[in-house]
Structures are given as structure tokens and as C-alpha cells.
Amino acid sequence: MGNRTGNKILAIGGGKGGVGKSVLSIGISVSLAKKGNRVVLADLDLGAANLHTYLGIMGRTPSIADFILRRKPDLEEILVETEIENLRLISGAEFVPGMANPAHWMKLKMIRHLRNLDADYVVIDLGAGVHFNTLDFFGIADRGIVITAPEPGAVMNAYGFIKAALFRKLQSVFRRHSVIGPLIEHEAKKGEKDGRLSLEWLKGQIELGAPEMIPILKEIEESFAPALIINRVPEGHTHVLVKNLISLCMEKLGIQIEYIGNLPDVKEMPFYLLNIPKLFEKDMGKPYFDAVEKAVSRLLSPLQSAEPSMARIKKDFTDEEIEKIISFIDTLDDSIFDNTNKEVWKLRMFFKPEKVISFLEGKGITHELFYA
Hints:
Elements: E1 8-13, H1 21-34, E2 39-44, H2 51-54, H3 64-68, E3 79-81, E4 87-90, H4 104-115, E5 121-126, H5 132-139, E6 143-148, H6 152-174, H7 180-188, H8 199-209, H9 214-223, E7 227-231, H10 240-253, E8 258-263, H11 276-281, H12 286-300, H13 319-330, H14 342-348, H15 353-362
Parallel strand pairs: 1-5, 1-6, 2-4, 2-5, 6-7, 7-8
Antiparallel strand pairs: 3-4
Helix pairs in contact: 1-12, 5-6, 6-7, 6-10
């Protein structure tokens, strides 16, 4: 794999197709590349890939199918150069049966390889809907972006996507906890009308049955803050449906959505679907690209404060590696954890492993599995 450089992953998702995910993904990628960043744009809409055509790439190229089918051992080997300097593509051009639902081990392998790409930013264009694969790729991002149109159906689908992403995050973190895991599973199976699962409800349950896990829930609450972009809305306007979406996420789920801007409707866009970057250079496309650049600035500001000392620490681990590190933690003396609960640090390995490792490093403890 490429040399680990501490890349940042941005994932663009939404509740339904046709709301502008792919064009936004290209816009964000071009904006980052033009600022001198090394960018990889990954088409992980595995059932309906189209980024290669939007970038004007028509011939046969390597694609994600070559990696999934193990014709290529590394994502670096399927990267496709684009006409934009500093921007490379992971194409989804070739579709094969079953590719839209890769096996669990393959999904974990894809995540590890995405994290290890030699790039400053990896921008992931996700498929529509709330399939586990889509939610898991959204969940591993350093920043998740939800795009929607100001229409009732699109806004409610966006809410459904955000809710499903939160549930999937909670499930992935607490799935092995004997008390909290079954509670989440039970609530997740209920419908919207009967389901009670929100961060506030879960906090109450944890306070009753596993109060030592409150710090973990607080970290999830702080870190799960999807950015929201509204497509086809005039600059300076916030549609009432969008305000309702932000309120709904706070009231029903207990999460704060970060609204980072609008994208204008560009009537000429259908004429540039074989070369979207060319549209950004035209007068009619400039307002759209300017809006993307403003959104990118807001999107990246929390990432600029990331600790550079943690860049060499792995961010993603196989299930086997996590279990080995947890077993290693079990061998450590309780005094190392400053009178905090060791179980909390073990569970945090499923959520923020780099934070656990950074903490242990600060105590002078290292392990070969900590680093890439």
C-alpha cells in the first residue's frame, strides 16, 4: 500500500438519488486539488457508478471491481489520473453482480486501503439509501456531508439517512457491550412511530445500567455532527424544510447538524455531464463552484486542529487487531488508567482507537500493532 500520510476522509451521502451527490463530490475534490492538495476521489456508489463519465473519462480504465475481485491487490494500483492536477480517481466504471454488497471482510479491507492511500484528502461519493455498506463508509469519514434538495421527500430521506447513520455508529461502538448492545438492537428494530432511540434516551439507559460508559456516549455526541448542504437554493436563503430538518435531528435524535451552505441551481449543468470540471471554469458555473469553495472552508475548519503527532498512529484496525490490543490492555496495571475504568478504554478501541493509543503512548506504552 502507499505510504501512510494521515489523509483525511470526506464522505458525501444523502437519502435518495438525484440530489447532486456526485457533482458535489467532484466540486469538493476540484476545490481541494486546486489548492495544492493531493486528492483521491473514490466512486463508492457501487451499484450505479458515474463519476468517470462526469470527469470525461470514457475509455476502459482500472476500477474498484479490480480490487473487489482481487485482480489488483492495492487501491493505489487502480488510481486513474484526471485532467485536474493533483486529482486522481478510483473509478466504479465496471459493474459485476454482487459488487454493490461486498463481503464484510472486503469492506474492512477497502476501509484500511482508503486510510492508507498516499493523499491529503480522500473524497468518497456514496450510493443512495441506507444500506449498511453506505452507512459504514459514511461512519469512517473524518467529516460526513449530507446533501439534499429543498423538497419534502428529499428532506425526509436526508433525515432517514442521518438517523440510520447514527444508529449504525451506535451499533458499531456498543455491539459487544452486554447491556447497551441489546438495548440498541431492540430499539433499532422498531419503526419511527414506536422507536425511542436518541442520544438523550440512550444516556438515561446508560446511567441506569452502565454509567461508566457515559464518556463514550459523550464522545459520539461530539463527533457525530454531519455537515448539511442544500442544493438548488439561492445564496442567503434557508428553506423552511431545512430548518425543520435541523430541528428534527436535534429534537428526535439529540444531534446537532452543521449547516454549511447552499448550492445554486445551474440550468446549464445537463450540458456538461461529460465534463463537470469544465463547467466550473465557465461564467455560468462560477456561482456553483464559489459556493462549494465556501462550504469546503467551513467543512475543513474542525480538521485543521487535528493533532499532527497522531498522524503516524493507525486509524483503522482489523477486528483481529482490535481484539489483540484489547487483550494487551487487559494485561496492563489498572493504575495506568488514572483511576478511570479500563472497560471504557477497551470499548473506545471500537470507536476511537487512535485516542486509546495516543493515551497509552503518553504513559510510555507501545505495541507493534499501534502503527502502520
